[in-house]
Amino acid sequence: MKIAVINGTEKHGITYQLKEMFLNPFRETAEITEYYLPKDCPSFCMGCLNCTLRGEHTCKDAARVQKIAASLLDADLIVMTSPAYVFHVTGAMKTLLDHFAYLWIPHRPAPEMFAKRAVIITQCLGAGGESAAKDIKHSLAWWGISDIKLFTGKLMSDVVWDRLTEKKRFELTKKITALSEKCIRIDYTKPARTSPITKLKFLICRMMQKSLHEKDPEYLDGKYWANQGWLGTARPWKSR
Length: 240
Ligand SMILES: Cc1cc2nc3c(=O)[nH]c(=O)nc-3n(C[C@H](O)[C@H](O)[C@H](O)COP(=O)(O)O)c2cc1C
Description:
Layout: E1 2-7, H1 14-23, E2 31-36, H2 50-53, H3 62-74, E3 77-83, H4 91-99, E4 117-124, H5 129-143, E5 147-154, H6 166-184, H7 196-215, H8 220-228
Parallel strand pairs: 1-2, 1-3, 3-4, 4-5
Helix pairs in contact: 1-6, 7-8
Bound molecules: flavin mononucleotide.
């Protein structure tokens, strides 16, 4: 199986420790590709809208973004991590998520995403881990992924792994190991189930794309939906 990991920080801190613990049981069997932010996608989205209006390859950062996109599309499991910074993901992670606006269901979702599974790992000192996880979940869900598992941790004492109390280290280790064991038992040859809410979001966007495509057959998103057969009877969760 293949795992694509996006690390929302380059720091080898607690987020990194937890992510390593999550990946350890997979190391023997999985092909793991990791990206570290901001190193692997350092430039901000400038808001030109080229990705949505003219195609993702016209983005000034297409080389870096499309390399990451290819790994995500190829993966059976996507792992995204971030510490909480002021209750949200790191700026570096937000920058990457902005670059993937074109992949949202209202634009040009990739059919592969509807079959994928994802894990989000966040942690914080006291509060904000849940909202940081939600930042990532919001994007992944709108890319079409239904099976998204969350790990959120609260340190409550120190910010260095070795200085955490033994009880806290045990608690975090137990929780991330349990998630990892749950994920390793999954049969990744079978696609994830697409949830009713994802299907509903898709069908609402389909109505919009149908009308846009009728008004302007050259409009990129509408043309993409038509080419996928989605304006007819084809559905991304059926094409497996
Ligand atoms: C800019 C910045 C903002 C932060 N904001 C929060 C926050 O809103 N809530 C919180 O509990 N911790 C906050 N923290 C603390 C980190 O989430 C915490 O230290 C975390 O363990 C860092 O993870 P790391 O070791 O992987 O870098 C913040 C840290 C930084 C650097």
